[in-house]
Design goal:
Strand content of chain A: under 5%
Low-confidence stretches of chain B: none
Number of helices of chain A: 9
Helix content of chain B: over 70%
Oligomer: heterodimer
Number of helices of chain B: 2
Structural class of chain A: mainly alpha
Low-confidence stretches of chain A: 1-9
Order of helices and strands of chain B: HH
Radius of gyration of chain A: 23 Å
Largest sheet of chain B: none
Structural class of chain B: mainly alpha
Number of strands of chain B: 0
Helix content of chain A: over 70%
Chain lengths: 278, 158
Amino acid sequence: MASNIDAAAGHAPTPTEYIVHHLTHLSSRHQESIVDFSVINFDTVFWSVTVGVIACLFMWMGARRATPNVPGRLQSFVEMLVEMVDDQSKAIVHGNRRFIAPLALTVFVWVVLMNAMDFLPVDLFSTTFRWLGLESHLPYFRVVPTADLNGTLGMSLGVLGLMIYYSLKIKGMGGWLHELFTAPFGPWLAPFNLLLNLIEYAAKTVSLGMRLFGNMYAGELLFLLIALLGSMATAAGFLGHVVAGTAWAIFHILIVVLQAFIFMMLTLVYIGQSHEGH
Amino acid sequence: MNLAATFVAQLVVFLILVWFAVKVVWPPLKKALDDRIGRIVAAMEAAERGNAELENASGRVNAKVAESQEEVRKLLNDYDRRAQTIIADARRTATVEAERIIASAKMEANQLLDRARVQLRAQLAEIAVVGAANILVKEIDATEHARLLAQLKDDLKE
């Protein structure tokens, strides 16, 4: 049976080819350099937008059916989420939270759903496309937007923009510039202060994006490695795949929620820091 | 490597994950949701009970207030009536007393009048006798004199 499929597929990929294939994005063209803004990863855009729409629909349904009477389970679930995020934002951000708390809620739900795409079997889409004969149109298709550094860094750049926006809003241009040059060592070490603050902003932004990306990328990679066990097409390989895959998938439930929670909390912390002087 | 074999294994893992989610993840989540809903239901029932009790209590208070108002009105009426009675009694007593005083005063006045009349009669008789004696300048029989006087007295009495 194995040889049949191999024959049908032309040639079976080697493990390296398999993994490289699964870690390649469906992009507008091949990315040559590390930073190339002319390349668009269609799969990341597609899935992040799709999942974002689903997240919005979910929250909208919770809000639309909201009654002051006894809530249903959906409303109750959404209310619990809102309460959790609101409590956290209340504790972290001291100021007007009319935009920040809903932002944190959106970030949390969106990132959870994007991370949760990792639960789908890694070969689900490539196999489906092969059956439908779409292989040539969709040769690559990654489903976890947060396992793409472009996705996570895009979000952390958004957070950087909000950090700067709230610094300006709360402290004013003069106050913020003063803080950039005088904190933390005082006015006599202004250049070092500026350098340190710029490094701090860069570190916050990069670490925020990198942390989520690294966790989800590692999770996906481990699923791919486990998939190699199953591809041995032996009883031991199958058993190993099922046991290891199940264990990792169950553990991944924790990672998916935890990483989304961390991303939300850090977003709140960074925006909260913009509300407070050094 | 065999893509079909690994895909089958991946599907098995996915099904186990779904089973796990349904069996292990969902129940505590469902319990938390149902507990929360239960708490809300209980809180709303308690609020409703409280409202009903408040309504009851305010009804009872209103009834009590109306009752005591009625009582006060009754008491005021009673006192009013009693006051009227007392005034009427006093008036009646006063009238009776006044009549009695008037009557006795009248009687006294009559007696005084009678006595004065008797005295007046006596003096008039004497004056008449003296007058007559003076006119006659003549002793008259004293006995006859006394008899005439008595007759005159009697005549005057009538």
